[in-house]
Amino acid sequence: MVALQHVLEAAPAYFHAVTGLPPGPAEAQSTFTALPPGKAYDDKRVWGLYAGDDMIGCADVIRGYPSRDKAVIGLLLLAEHWQRCGFGRAFALLVEQMIAAWPEIATLRIGVIEQNVGALAFWRKLGYVETGEVKSADQSYVGKVVVLEKSLARD
After folding, report:
1. Whole-angstrom Cα distance, residue 131 to residue 76?
2. Which tens digit of pLDDT belongs to each residue from 56-93?
3. d(CA 100, CA 106)
4. Span 3-33, pLDDT tens digits
5. Full-model pTM
6. Contact, 3 vs 53, CB < 8 A?
7. Torsional class of 51: left (φ above 0), alpha (ψ -120 to 50), beta (otherwise)
8. How far apart are CA 32 and CA 28, in angstroms?
9. I want to staple 5 with a disulfide (CB 3.0 to 4.6 A). Which of 14, 28, 103, 106 is the partner?
10. Nearest CA among 99, 108, 110 for reference residue 133
């Protein structure tokens, strides 16, 4: 929990882009506990990316959401010092490989706050395409959520 909180606090630009505020003291706890309606903790994975003993990034994934054949990446984030070095792309591809082990999953899904233009560009470069869905976010976010999806490639 401490290592995850450190990663989240080391990415203040992300929090400013999506919430307009710095990361809060309970961001890690929220990452571990937040679930969409109808999902259980057995469906949730929070993975860390490490450089040696230090966690430098995290991914939050929900299996079987919003339908049985989809997995949603709720968050994939690296500490700012590690961004724009190729690690985010490599981590995203590793997360995709781990999700590919779930035989029922055919589609990956992510929602990005529309003001987070860097994240939108990142996911588009990885082959995610906008579904046309734009959802209203709760009051803690600064804009609407743009939904992107990608068919899961399996060997």
Report:
1. 19
2. 999 999 999 999 999 999 999 999 999 999 999 999 99
3. 8
4. 999 999 999 999 999 999 999 999 999 999 9
5. 0.92
6. no
7. beta
8. 6
9. 28
10. 110
For residue 42, with 0-12 CB atoms within 10 Å meaning exposed, 13-18 middle and 19 or more buried, which class applies? Answer: exposed
Residue in 90, 104, 77 with CA at minimum distance from that of residue 10: 77
Helix or strand or coil: residue 45? strand
List the structure tokens of 33: 């506990």
**Measuring CA to CA, how many Å separate 3 from each of 15, 23, 48, 51, 100?**
17, 14, 9, 12, 26
pLDDT tens string 106-148: 999 999 999 899 999 999 999 999 999 998 877 777 789 999 9
Residue pair 116/17 in contact (Cβ under 8 Å)? The answer is yes
